Amino acid sequence: VQLQASGGGLVQAGGSLRLSCAASGRTDSMYVVDWFRRAPKKERVFVASIAWRGGNTSYQDSVKGRFTISRDMAKNTVYLQMNSLKPEDTAIYYCAAADPDMWSRGLFDSWGQGTQVTVSS
After folding, report:
1. 86 closest CA partner among 112, 63, 60, 119
2. How far apart are CA 121 and CA 115, in angstroms?
3. Where residue 21 falls among pLDDT bands split at 50, 70, 90?
4. Cα dihedral sign for 44, 31, 20, 120?
5. How do beta strands 9-12 and 115-120 pair?
6. Alpha carbon distance 23, 115 (integer Å)
7. Which is nearest to 5 in space by CA: 89, 79, 99?
8. Element containing residue 51 per DSSP (H, E)
9. How confident is the model at residue 65 (pLDDT cuts 50, 70, 90)?
10. Is the dihedral angle over the CA atoms 109, 35, 20, 87 positive or is it negative?
11. Residue 63: φ, ψ to 5°
12. Coil, strand or helix: which one is 22?
């Protein structure tokens, strides 16, 4: 599976952005698609997850109620709607996909290239 992340940009605090993660290739093998982020000088951390077929979602506590992950199976795309953005949300955002085997081992076999989100105060 190949992933292409897009939609980042510069936004003021309180604003919104929608990130997209377009998948191609063996999309039928996808089990979950997650969003991660890496802030400057920090490690990459989990943001949100969606089960590709079932649609179940989960979130990092700091984004609950502000971010929404969704998918459009017809377009093979996963979205991350980010509202009420804060300066601490500034990071490079990555999407990643895993098939069932990789997911069971806590691994991802496909990563997007990352998209920069900058939130100004």
Report:
1. 119
2. 20
3. very high
4. negative
5. parallel
6. 15
7. 79
8. strand 44-51
9. very high
10. negative
11. -110, -5
12. strand
* AA identity, residue 104: S
Non-local (6+) Cβ contacts of 18 within 8 A are 7, 79, 80, 81, 82
Give buried/exposed letters for 32-70 (b at 16+ CB in 10 A, else e): bbbbbbeeeeeeeeebbbbebeeeeeebeeebeeebbbe
pLDDT at 81: 98
Task: Give φ, ψ of 69 to 5 degrees.
Answer: -100, 140
Confidence of residue 118 (pLDDT cuts 50, 70, 90): very high
In angstroms, the CA 47 to CA 94 distance is 9
